[in-house]
């Protein structure tokens, strides 16, 4: 099996890294049993970036390895330690690479060294419980999950960036011509379809330097898939002008320069998009006597069509100087006609970080479907094995107005509510006004250990109230001891009985007064 050395079109599957999960952690330290939440955030996943590099001329690497994935973000940890950022994956591509989705929609045209594009963005890291804590939710027992990164199929298509394109029949001498006017060294042989891949050469004419590209030879029916040239015509789409290289010394019967020109123009018209490019005609191989005679015959007919014609010989270099200066003139005109883009002041007005607050609710056969940037992202961040996290999601959706909108549309308790894309939607049972969250908490996200009704808080409140009834000279410590003594005495009376008593006496809890024998013993 032949191994390709030049690839100009590949289909690539790219996947960005997933964001790391946040962590639910509580600070633990000696003599500090309630140190508070200290769970760190997850790190963001790495992105996939396409970058133009001058030393890359083919897409061959992606032909052999069509699946690329960036690094995942690290998970958070206790002690307010955030997860590591996933490393970005930079994919070098040649200049002139066109990026499309699998439906053919162009996403970017990468021209210019250093140009780059984030084709797949890494997922966000989930928040830890330290970031979720608030005055009302002092000790969250949950954290948010990291979001998955973008994952998609793209098509990379290389279109060589050249100023002049050479077109013509196989064996017309295009490779010989580009080798004669530049330092390019393409394969040259005396059989058709010697050129299997586009060749690029740099030409200098006077003070103008430009690039010339030739593509595999075209034949009649190329637009219908015959031959090789039609597959590479994309490489001359960016050219400022086209040069028809016509063989004047061909030995094939039925061929002449005028017919060859008509066939090639017909194939270019079928390909489309090249009608406005200036044309030059190079009548090649005039070093051959028959070729020189034929060039003299057709020269007038070609000029009547408004074409600039140059009899040339790639073997003897005859007429090449005039041809290269004519190319340089067209390139200079094309460069001068380009509009100069002036640098403008860029004012950044970033929108909301969380995206749009808008969402839609649609009635379907499966239930009420909710679509929107925020609801779908919140669902991806939720750990559904944690009741408190599910309750937090319910609160967020309620604040966004999802519940209100469902009630307005006629949703009733028990209806199915689907959030997300039909392929991976999360289904809930609609329960309006239900207090969600963990059952052991008075309110979602609150810890009863931090409540002001715990014993220490009640004792401080009782002491403060007792200060208003204290005797003269009694301090706050005296009030505390008195209240503690009253509490201990009350506890002893109600639970354990008197702290001391005389055996057989009236306070003896083991002495039954109703027993006659014990009464006689007592007397």
From TrEMBL:
Q: Which residues form the Obg domain?
A: 4-161
Which portions of the chain have biased composition (kind: Basic and acidic residues)? 441-455, 462-492
What is the official name of this protein in its record? GTPase Obg
Recorded hits in Pfam families, A to Z, give: DUF1967 (PF09269), GTP1_OBG (PF01018), MMR_HSR1 (PF01926)
| OBG-type G domain: residues covered | 162-332
InterPro entries on file = G_OBG, GTP-bd, GTP-bd_Obg/CgtA, GTP-bd_prot_GTP1/OBG_C_sf, GTP1-OBG_CS, GTP1_OBG_dom, GTP1_OBG_dom_sf, OBG_GTPase
Name of encoding gene: obgE
Tell me which residues bind Mg(2+): 175, 195
Instruction: Cite the binding residues for GTP.
Output: 168-175, 193-197, 214-217, 284-287, 313-315
Q: Which organism is it from?
A: Nocardioides aestuarii
Region called Disordered, residue ranges: 66-85, 441-523
